[in-house]
Amino acid sequence: MKKTFSLLLLSFASLINAQAFKGKGDIKFDIAANIQNGGSGIRFSNDYGLGENISIGIVGSYLLSVSRDEMDNKPDFGDRVDVKARFNANLGNVFKIDEKVDIYPGLDLGLRNFGAHLGLRYFFTEGFGVVSEIGFPIAKYKPEATGFERLNNQFVFNIGASFNL
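^ Outer membrane protein beta-barrel domain-containing protein, sequence as received from the core. Prediction below:
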């Protein structure tokens, strides 16, 4: 039964026409699980297309599950939250891959660091798809961060849903 359902879902998804990035005026909203060393949480991002292959946006993340430190302390709200402005180069049409796929490298400037990210979106329909993204700091504001300051200053993996507004 599982194989039949998977085959039907794959067949249905391949018949749907969707476009991952349309260019100027295109708005994407993502909600994803944030997975990193010492914690996991939720991440929201919003990207707005400025041109055919350029978008800007904002990202907010909040760590829900965080390991306690050596002294058995829990992190404060400020240790769990991060907000970033971002710039993306949407390269799906540059590489001439399927319209449903968008590959986007980019840079972000946040409360804790200056970093880079690489993401991939795949749209099943005009308004719904999946997103996966990795991010890492290039320059940390506190290079010798200790304790909970390290939470939002490391390699991060995100996976979730994407909506084309």
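Residues 18-164 form a domain with the Porin fold (CATH 2.40.160.20).
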